[in-house]
Design goal:
homotrimer, alpha/beta, UDP-N-acetylmuramoyl-L-alanine:D-glutamate ligase, 8-stranded mixed sheet, 11 helices, globular, thiamine biosynthesis (chains A, B, C)
């Protein structure tokens, strides 16, 4: 077995053995799916966004996930408080800049999170990563058609600027720390037709980085698990309804044998 | 093929081709289903309710959906801001007065939305449409048993008063612009046992009115799609769990051949 | 048929016949599941948390469910207002202290609800009930490993202190009014891997206590229904995705014959 797969299987075993608590401050659309995705893989999810408790909650968590899908000023304040505490405790922070580029407010908030929270990992689709990189260079807006190459270059630049790992989700997922670039070839287009699939990916990254200090590998491992579960789910789906259900079942069932059989090098 | 079906199939093709962005300010119970229903039919959903961004978001959207299922003062403010911008841009507004008649607050908010937002289309069940019409005539409350005839008359009156199209969902759906009344005979009673089915109908109307300027026809076409998908979903459901999943799958699969086979004239 | 089963079947018939309105002020993660669980069993759910309307809403409801899973100061205020009105109207209150013990804020809020709302029934897992009992005795925190015996003793003490019924969910569910202890042996471990299963239990208790003045029996009956539906759902599940769907289907289908066949005395 190659080193990549060994690392993946080791992480998966650790997630199931230690059931790390992943604290999510996330959007209202996907909370249920995200919690179930974390439960399916063996982690322990908690969703909490009250300003009064986020610092306490993140203090007992092994990873913090920030997602601005349905942001408001109160949630943003909670994110900044939780992230500040996470930084003090060296707890990894995963940031999902949902919809950045769509509105000036999202750009402002995303920049605030980048600057103040210094995420350990950022995950977005090509448009979001591109918009985020542009925010960084003080421009606004998002291109609707994005070339993968451009996204990769900007992802590397973003990773370097913030000393973090950047994940670009797409037909091929790219994971970079600004130097190395890893590619995940597993996955299925039907995943794009289920709301919150990207948010689930971000949460799973939280579970993997909670058990693996090698941040690049943790992000890569989580994305391989996403991709294989997505492929297997799509094989028996007849639409995005069954896709959503099957995906959780496949996350629940995934193991060493399945990973070895379906992993695309 | 008759003119009704031609229009429906044309709309469906346009939704799938152009993937119109539908901006939803909706309730916390149904956000996931609504987003998935829009994705299933081929539209592009966005859920956003921050006061700081709703005007920007609706500016890039092709339709605005307002739903007061779990309203609060902040969401109401966001709805009014978004609707005002939508009006300026001639973007259609679809209003779902969930639970109007149940509390004085919902009646007040519903009236505010009617007066200030002037929705393009209103969709509710018979009780809600009746309550809304009564709000309009300054009375409160809602009758728990509502005759279809009464609902139709009040729907016509409401449509005339606000120069909009009104959809009354039920065993038969009625769609009226105050003059003409169209009837949709497709559908299944199990749809009432799944939370947010009406909210999905409202969102689909948003997708259809985004691609068809004939508002009456757009609303009618969306309701036929709802009805057929609901019937087919119920045929293989063994409860409201599988009904919810099947419904999304049927929306995903629906096409010209299915519509022609199952449409009830 | 023994007296326990007669009572259960009578309650189920009443829920389906009268379709009691259950008013939920609950968390953002489980709203959809909770609403669908109530619809599946035949009750009528409403989710409403605006301070402006909770008193009106609870006034037309037959039970009030309070759940602090994703609490914030506004929801807490709404809970206290609604509970106060419920008390005036002798409407039963079911309290789900999700995550109590995890943060100081949850402990404070849980104590406030205990003191000011005087719930009719409290349902939690062993850790939560233990934490709640400790809050009551002015200590903080929660033990991660909890012996069933300790939980039972604390549950009895809590029930006595607040003159309420306490439900401890687990492999065996314990239901106590401080004197008697009833046990539910139905259930399946896969239920713990679906988010919000406990919240659904709490909501179902709301539906049963809405039709049965014998609070201890109502809580017991709801938990038996949960357990049987969970077992049957697990029998055909291949992960937590299908488990969530099957569970709703089984609640929808459950009837006298199924209960008699699967009830574990």
């Amino acid at each position: 077995m190659n080193a990549q797969l060994s690392s993946l299987i080791e992480d998966l075993d650790k997630v199931r053995k230690h059931s790390p608590l992943v604290h999510n401050i996330t959007n209202d659309v996907v909370m249920n799916n995200t919690a179930n995705a974390l439960l399916a893989i063996g982690a322990s999810p908690v969703m909490a966004h009250a300003i009064e408790e986020v610092e306490d909650m993140v203090s007992i968590a092994s990873a913090l996930v920030l997602n601005i899908g349905t942001l408001d000023s109160s949630k943003v304040k909670a994110m900044l408080l939780a992230a500040n505490k996470a930084k003090q405790l060296n707890t990894p922070i995963v940031f999902d800049p949902v919809g950045v580029g769509a509105t000036a407010y999202r750009n402002t908030v995303a920049e605030q999170i980048l600057q103040q929270c210094k995420p350990t990992i950022i995950r977005g689709n090509a448009s979001e990563i591109m918009a985020l990189a542009k925010v960084n260079t003080k421009t606004k807006g998002v291109d609707s058609t994005v070339s993968s190459d451009s996204a990769i270059d900007l992802a590397k630049q973003l990773a370097k600027s913030y000393a973090c790992v950047v994940v670009v989700s797409g037909e091929i997922d790219y994971i970079t720390d600004g130097k190395e670039i890893l590619e995940v070839k597993n996955g299925h287009t039907l995943m794009q037709r289920v709301t919150g699939m990207g948010c689930s990916a971000t949460a799973l990254i939280g579970a993997f980085v909670a058990v693996n200090n090698d941040v690049l590998k943790a992000a890569y491992n989580a994305m391989v698990v996403m991709g294989i579960a997505g492929e297997l789910a799509a094989a028996n789906a007849s639409g995005n309804g069954s896709m959503q259900v099957n995906f959780l079942d496949e996350l629940y069932k995934i193991d060493q044998a399945i990973i070895k059989m379906y992993f695309k090098a």
